[in-house]
Every structure is written in structure tokens, then in C-alpha cells.
Amino acid sequence: MIPEPLSIGLLGPAVHKQLKQMRWEQMGKKILIVDDSKTIRQQASFFLSRGGFPVVEAENGQVALQKLLVHPDVSLILSDIDMPVMAGKELLEQLQKNPANALIPVIMLTAEGAKDQIELARKCGAKGWLAKPFKPEILIAAISKIAR
Predict the structure, then answer these.
(1) Which residue has the higher pLDDT, 54 or 50?
(2) What 8-state DSSP symbol labels residue 27?
(3) What's this model's pTM, rounded to 2 decimal places?
(4) pLDDT digit string (tens) for 59-96?
(5) Which residues contact 93 (CB under 8 A, 6 or more apart)?
């Protein structure tokens, strides 16, 4: 059973309504969140799980590739661009080399107003990008639209 969304006071009525409508539609669309910031991973996981998305977390691109071996049913990857060990750009390149992962859509997280990062995300094959800090309703809407 999917847990009820958070109280209206925490998220606001628009987000509460959107989560309530979407959670049954999104059930089963697993999202892999890749970010070296534990706080960002927790925030994204919190909102997505309330929206009915199962979530897997990784702290960098290298760990994300390992998680994909265990979770081949990932429907979308939400990844930071700048990370230690393996950054988002290298993760996208590695995904393209493996036919099993090449079709997984990726949304990149960028610094707010960083046009160079948005252009890099586009060139690397990302299906979209979100500026940090992100709003829950925008995160859910973007993932709902792009997840396969």
C-alpha cells in the first residue's frame, strides 16, 4: 500500500492534490537518484516516494552503475552533474555504452542559473534538467512526464 501524501500544511494544497492524483499512475516507475549530497538525495526521495515512486539512491555515478545491476527496472535517473568519483557527464557516457541502460531517460540536476551546466546536460543526452533547489511539484511533474 502506498502511504498517504504528507499533510497539506507541509506541502501546500497544489502539491498535495498533484501527489494524490499521480501516486497510483506512477506506481512501479522506479527512480534512481544520484547525488553526492545526502540532503538532496533525501529530499528528492522523500517527495518522490510520497508521489508513489519507488526510489533507489546512489552517491555518485560509479555507485549508480552498480545499483543498475541490482535494479534493472529503473525507469528514470535523476542525477547531479558535479560529483566526485564519477560525475553526471561520465555516468551518461557509460549509460550510452550499455544497450540495457542506454534507453533510461536521465534528468540532470544543475546549479540554479548555470547555463553552462544545462548545455552540458543537453550535449550529454539528458532528457531534461532541474535547477537546485527544486520545487517538489516541478520535480514530480518532470519525472512523471519523462519516466518510461
Answers:
(1) 54
(2) T
(3) 0.81
(4) 999 999 999 999 999 999 999 998 999 999 999 999 99
(5) 124
* Residue 144: closest CA among 73, 58, 48, 64: 48
Q: Residue 148 is placed in which grid cell?
A: 518510461
Q: Which residue has the cell 541490482?
A: 70
> What single letter denotes the amino acid at residue 2?
I
Packing angle between helix 136-146 and helix 13-26, nearest 10 degrees? 20
- What DSSP line would sit under 93-137, residue for residue? HHHHHSTTTTTS-EEEEEETT-HHHHHHHHHTT-SEEEEESPPHH
The model's pLDDT over 25-41, given as tens digits with 9 standing for 90+, comes to 455 799 999 999 999 99
In whole angstroms, what is the distance from residue 120 CA to residue 128 CA? 11
CA proximity to 69, closest of 32, 105, 27, 42: 32
Rounded CA-CA distance 47/116 in Å is 27
Per-residue pLDDT at 1 exceeds 50: no
